[in-house]
Write a structure and sequence with these properties.
alpha/beta; 7-stranded mixed sheet; 5-stranded parallel sheet; 2-methylisocitrate dehydratase activity; RNA-binding; aconitate hydratase activity; iron-sulfur; Aconitase_dom2
């Protein structure tokens, strides 16, 4: 094992990255070597045991903790590790399997004081607090000292604070840095391997950045040159962090600008990110990772500059002559505590531990921690979102700017982030979920998996279900199309995918760390955002689709000066705010999701819609049937699914929906008159904010068309199939990807797949397909029309120019090989206008025999 590992170290060193952490099997073999009295590499092996094993409840950490516990209990030193050393090493493991041996050692006269010291600086205690409290009440002086230390927040106060002045070297990426730039989708397979994945950061050429090897390695040489100037790097950009996959993007940045975390292999924390605008979820993910994100005018900064950052004064000055370059205000003073604690999540957990210890000792609330500024008192009513979050906090509503920790009812995880979420959960020492329902999908990697993906498919489901989560199967389809079927109205959720946006209730998507925290604890930290109201009025015009209404939101915002496409000094009224939509109450839940889903492209923190109670009830009846069918098909964790079915049925027995107060206040109100929208609205390459009328882009040649992604439902495919019914050998390459296997089965049974094949289309397995661009990709440099979520440069294919459009417009463009004129579009749409009721039927599982049969069969068994 040791010889093989040394080879692995050498291979990784060729790429300038450290070796992977040890596996449980490797730790077991390492221990066998240590136990061998003839061992010649004892010192090197002990160093590996201390520094190359992931902490928390990683399987390797369990083997390590059990070995160290044996040393303590047998009082042996023959393996080169004394009992005192074993206590010290256990104290570096953060939480989980190391805690019980340390608690047991509180009764050991020789080791108790050392064990108490290590416990005092450990915050991932959770239910083990009761064991220590019990020892303290029975007179154990060392247990009392641990409780007192927690009460005094010594775990926090003994950590270094931010300096008054921090000298940094600027690394600036002009324009917009989206998370595809920082974490390229084709390299998604390597995301859990942070050092390896970070090599691809900024690997696509762009202004101000020259990658070492385009498409594979980013500007590593330039970064190393800047780091060699003695001072840490600050990542600087005009707009930073738009898009998805934000945790892996954060990991990549911090690998280049952060600091190693002692005893935690291959992870870094801290660092400074300065942006004219920082996307809200990315901002939060930086917080979670212990970095300091600062929104500030960066126009005076350029790569290579030496600056002094004054975090308390809110100033950036030239290091050489102290000329003031820019001033700023921190989003909240609590950021300073977060950096000191090592991140927002450690701060929240530690504060909770301190509060619990003080309550145990009968002490008042501590004044050690900074508090978020409370919003000014208001007599205004509450918006719909404010009421939903309020209910999750046990109050009527939450005001904008108010810090809160809402109860999280539903959590989603997808496969390209699932490996990272698993790592975060093990770091948090989570052995069971506190959130009511946590679901894992395999939609981004199931179609064309790499070996590393296959391994994830085999190992991640058991990890999730053993913690009482629900695991889907490869080939089932897209996370959002499934997770939406598991929702409870007016509740709060989250997910490690920016498109975790609920048609019922509200979701605040986050990075993998925050999602793991929400799953483990059942709550999430939230500084309540303001809301922007989009109010639709009038009648929808003939031939206009919901996707056109999606794009009407940025189109009207641009017209009103609330949104700009220029990245420098960009204005975006939606960024970091909640998008609330009114005037479309008649929508089905499947349709509502199309609008909510696209709020991610607006960089909105969340989205809510008011729907009619009857349509919500219909959706929930369908969903309960699907969940029962899942249980009959052997999906786990069955008790979690049964509990969710009971919650759905409880709502159906007493239906009610929250609504906004008439006197609610909004940061802005955008009114959209549906009678004014008489032609399709598309988003032009390569910016989802760049909304334009079809007439502005008509006749643009089109080589490829993609109809798929979470922005589609079965109605879109029927519409496309009817439009393509008489087409043969269409000029554009057409990709068809149903969102779920249920959609695929229904479409196939209705004959639509046959129509698609006759037209020359390529039918993809149910899942994300082209949307993320990490598996199949369009031809380099091609012109594309797509129903996918976003159209950032290089996302669907290298140098591809991608329009975002409805499924209907996409199908017409595929037939013509170009963008149609408005007249051509309406001529084709007339073919399906008379059959709208049949076309836009949705999957109501409680009316489909194949799902009802399974449900009835299960009921019969239960009755017997």
């Amino acid at each position: 094992m040791f010889e093989e590992y040394k080879k692995h170290v050498a291979e990784r060193a060729e790429n300038g990255i450290p070796a992977k952490p040890l596996t449980a099997q490797q730790v077991s073999e390492l221990i066998s070597l240590l136990e061998n009295k003839q061992c010649e590499d004892r010192e090197a092996l002990i160093n590996l045991l201390i520094n190359q094993v992931s902490p928390g409840v990683d399987a390797a950490a369990k083997v390590k903790a059990e070995f160290l516990d044996k040393i303590i209990k047998t009082k042996t030193s023959e393996f080169g590790i004394t009992p005192e050393d074993a206590i010290a090493i256990l104290g570096t493991m953060q939480g989980g399997y190391n805690i019980q041996p340390l608690i047991d050692s509180l009764d050991d006269t020789e080791l108790a004081q050392l064990a108490a010291n290590k416990l005092s600086h450990t915050i991932l205690i959770f239910e083990k607090f009761n064991d220590i409290e019990q020892k303290a009440r029975h007179g154990n002086a060392h247990a009392k000292a641990v409780i007192a230390s927690w009460a005094n927040a010594e775990w926090f106060t003994e950590r270094a604070t931010l300096d008054e002045k921090i000298t940094l070297t600027v690394f600036k990426v002009p324009g917009e840095t989206n998370t595809d730039d920082l974490s390229p989708a084709p390299e998604a397979w390597s995301r859990p391997d942070i050092p390896l994945h970070a090599l691809s950061m900024l690997s696509s050429p762009r202004e101000g950045v020259t990658p070492d090897q385009p498409g594979q390695y980013g500007p590593l040489t330039r970064i190393q040159e800047l780091k060699a100037r003695q001072y840490p790097l600050a990542y600087v950009g005009d707009v930073v962090g738009t898009g998805s996959s934000r945790k892996s993007a954060t990991n990549s940045i911090l690998w280049h600008i952060g600091k190693d975390i002692p005893f935690v292999p291959n992870k870094r924390s801290g660092g400074f990110v300065l942006g004219g605008k920082i996307a809200p979820i990315f901002f939060n993910t930086l917080e979670d990772s212990g970095a300091l994100p600062v929104e500030v005018d960066v126009s005076g900064l350029s790569t290579g500059m030496l600056i002094d950052l004054y975090p308390y004064k809110g100033e950036i000055r030239n290091h050489h002559d102290q000329t003031l370059i820019a001033s700023f205000s921190l989003k909240t003073e609590v950021l300073l505590d977060e950096v000191q604690a090592g991140g927002r999540i450690p701060l929240i957990i530690g504060r909770s531990l301190t509060a619990r210890a003080r309550a145990s000792l009968g002490l008042p609330v501590t004044s050690v921690f900074r508090k978020a500024k409370e919003p000014a008192p208001s007599s205004a009513g509450f918006t719909l979102a404010q009421k939903m979050v309020g209910r999750a906090c046990g109050v009527e509503g939450i005001r904008p700017g108010q810090y809160c920790e809402p109860k999280i009812t539903t959590v989603g995880s997808q496969d390209t982030t699932g490996g990272m979420t698993r790592d975060e959960l093990t770091d948090l020492a989570c052995l069971g979920f506190s959130a009511d329902l946590v679901m894992q999908s395999f939609c981004h990697t199931s179609a064309y998996p790499k070996p590393v993906d296959v391994n994830l498919h085999e190992t991640l489901p058991q990890f999730i279900t053993s913690r009482k989560g629900v695991a889907l199967r490869p080939g089932d389809g897209i996370i959002h199309s499934w997770l939406n079927r598991m929702l409870i109205p007016d509740t709060v959720g989250t997910g490690a995918d920016s498109h975790t946006r609920f048609p019922l209730g509200i979701s605040f998507p986050g990075g993998s760390g925050l999602v793991a925290f929400a799953a483990a604890t059942g709550i999430m930290p939230l500084d309540m955002p303001e809301s922007v109201l989009v109010r639709f009025k009038g009648e929808m015009q003939k031939g206009i689709t919901l996707r056109d209404l999606v794009h009407a939101i940025p189109y009207y915002a641009i017209k009103q000066g609330l949104l700009t496409t220029e990245k420098k000094n960009k204005r975006n009224i939606f960024s970091g705010r909640i998008l609330e939509i009114e005037g479309l109450q008649m929508l089905k839940a499947e349709q509502a999701f199309e609008l909510a889903d696209a709020s991610a492209e607006r960089s909105a923190a969340a989205c809510v819609l008011r729907l009619e109670e009857e349509n919500v009830a219909e959706y929930l009846r369908s969903n309960a049937t699907l969940l029962r069918w899942m249980i009959s098909q052997g999906y786990e964790h069955a008790p979690t699914l049964e509990k969710r079915i009971a919650e759905i049925e409880a709502w159906l027995a007493n239906p009610s929906l929250l609504s906004a107060d008439e006197n609610a206040e909004y940061a802005a109100i955008i009114e959209i008159d549906l009678t004014e929208i008489t032609e399709p609205i598309v988003c032009a390459p390569n910016d989802p904010d760049d909304a334009r009328l079809l007439s502005e882009v008509a006749r643009t040649p089109v080589q490829e068309v993609f109809i798929g992604s979470c922005m589609t439902n079965i109605g879109h495919f029927r519409a496309a199939g009817k439009l393509l019914a008489d087409a043969k050998e269409i000029p554009a390459r057409l990709w068809i990807a149903p969102p779920t296997k249920m959609d695929a089965q229904q479409l196939s049974g209705e004959g639509y797949f046959n129509k698609f094949i006759r037209s020359g289309a390529r039918i993809e397995p149910a899942g994300c397909s082209l949307c993320m661009g990490n598996q199949a990709r369009v031809k380099e440099g091609s012109s594309v029309v797509s129903t996918s979520t976003r159209n950032f440069p290089h996302r669907l294919g290298t140098d591809a120019n991608v329009f975002l459009a409805s499924a209907e417009l996409s199908a017409i463009a595929a037939m013509l090989g170009k963008m149609p004129t408005v007249e051509q579009y309406h001529w084709h749409m007339d073919k399906i206008n008379d059959t709208r009721e049949d076309t836009y039927r949705y999957l109501n599982f409680h009316t489909l025999a194949e799902y009802q049969v399974q449900e009835k069969r299960r009921i019969d068994v239960v009755t017997i």
